[in-house]
Amino acid sequence: MNFIEEIVEKDIQEKKNDSRIQTRFPPEPNGYLHIGHVKAICMDFGIAEKYGGVCNLRFDDTNPVKEDVEYVDSIMHDISWLGFRWGKVFYASDYFEQLYNLAIRFIKDGLAYVDEQTAEQIAEQKGTPTEPGKPSPYRDRPIEENLRLFEAMQAGEIPDGKMVLRAKIDMANPNMHFRDPIIYRIITNHPHHRTGRKWNVYPMYDFAHGQSDYFEGVTHSICTLEFVVHRPLYDWFIDQFSGDKFLGLSPYGRDYRPHQYEFNRLNITYTVMSKRKMLQLVQEGLVAGWDDPRMPTVCGLRRRGYTAEAIRAFIDKIGYTKVEGTIDLGLLEHTVREELKEKVPRVCAIFDPVKLVITNYPNGQKENIIAENIDGKSELGTRVMPFGKELWIERGDFQEEGDKNFYRLSPMGREVRLKSAYIVQATGCEKDAEGNITTVFATYDPDTKSGTEGGTRKTKATINWVEYEAALDAEVRLYDRLFAVENPSADERDFRELLNPDSLKVITAKVEPSLAKAETQDHFQFLKQGYFVVDDDSTAEHLIFNRTTSLKGTK
């Protein structure tokens, strides 16, 4: 049990908010979800699921400059793919009328004023954490003038950036967020993706967020630690209109109010979580898009072959605390391996192929080898592997002059088993003019076929193979960590200089013909190579596989 679950259980026992549990996940639709968001999603939806409550999805669409329907659609798709179901879908824009009327009420009550200073002037006169701020020269503007100017702002009569509406709180408060925060700004040049050009003023996050929670009946407003300093302001705004004064604003009664709680956000080694930096990577062509398998976005992880179950299991492992830290990427990769290893078929894929000719195998003869998808687990199915005189094997599985510690193919009398097939012995090789080995020659023992009495004979090594003519060519994308340094966010160099030049290598491999019918998002373990998934762009004519993760952790 984490500390937020302890809070929720205590609230239920004390019948706070009538023991009702309602959470929300409030993404801003200005980009794609990444694994950091998944931690919040698992918390928000998980709390609701565990305690019989409801989690709603609310889009914080208060900045039309950066928001788009494309992001709304992708966010909803990603949450569903992760296995969560929301109660209702809300938008902050659903409350624009109510929020605007609240701002009017603030002005009439002497709690807000229109300021004409520049952003730089406002920042300067706010002071520092150790020095109080100075009042704006417009702080004591008459209420009637504030009302007139605010209405002119909404009417589109004031240019962008010329005026803002500020709450009148306390310019000497040690919490900088209390020093007359901006609650409305003008945006006239960008139509909103839902309301079009109806609004020319838009609420700031701190003004819209808590009020939206209140309108909806949220009981536990859960967010990450950077919002701890915002919580007093969250409570102050709600204090101004909760209780008897504005009883009609929420259907949950006079004693209802939401509370904000914070947990540590997710930081992972060799990764950046900044939306701004991710956007730069995409716009500058440093990655192939938001769904590039090297990106920490949910769509990128999905395309790389990470399963929803593995991602959620990873979040469960790291837990929730009030202390910031960085999680080793290796733990995520390990969790994915653990999720896949007993579930996905194991097949042969030859990355650096060289031809093997079994000289004593009958000319023209072909047979089918029946191989289990996972050895010893026939309930997980079998597949057919064509076998013949000529095969593809890994170049590294043969040495012309193998030393005493090399147990694979070499013309030194050692026996090697071909996976699920026969025992063979190398007899020699053929080279091209540059000295590169082009063909390996071997003999086989026909009485050693796997699955027969002779098939139990042991060898010190087993190697993978694919029948020469039946093999399919496949594009294999070998993905690795996007950044070469462990903590790129803390490095003072330009983050683009920290990219791993070997984060993607593309090869052509020879794969089993059983993969001809593999479909997008089908997962496989390529024996001795790693875990792979069929890429979204793969076709029957051009197979593409992405490496999800290696068989062992990266040092």
Write up this protein.
24% of the residues lie in helices and 23% in strands. The longest helix has 16 residues, at 35-50. Strand 8 (220-224), helix 8 and strand 9 form a beta-alpha-beta unit. The chain has helices spanning 3-13, 35-50, 69-81, 96-108, 119-125, 143-154, 205-216, 231-241, 275-283, 298-304, 308-318, 329-340; strands spanning 22-25, 54-59, 89-91, 112-115, 164-167, 182-186, 201-203, 220-224, 259-263, 346-347, 349-350, 353-358, 366-372, 382-388, 390-394, 416-418, 423-431, 437-445, 462-463, 465-467, 472-479, 504-511, 523-526, 530-534, 543-549. The chain is elongated. The protein starts with a helix and ends in a 6-residue tail after the last strand. The chain has 555 residues and is of the alpha/beta class. Strands 10-23-24-25-21-22-11 form a 7-stranded mixed beta sheet.
In total, how many beta strands? Answer: 25
So how many helices? 12
From the alpha carbons, calculate the radius of gyration and give it in angstroms.
31 Å
Amount of beta strand: 15-25%
Flag low-confidence runs: none
Dominant shape: elongated
- Distance from N terminus to C terminus (CA atoms, Å) equals 32 Å
Going by helix content, strand content and strand pairing, the class is: alpha/beta
* Biggest beta sheet summary: 7 strands, mixed
Strand order of the largest sheet: 10-23-24-25-21-22-11
Query: Share of helix among residues?
Result: 10-25%
Mean pLDDT: 94
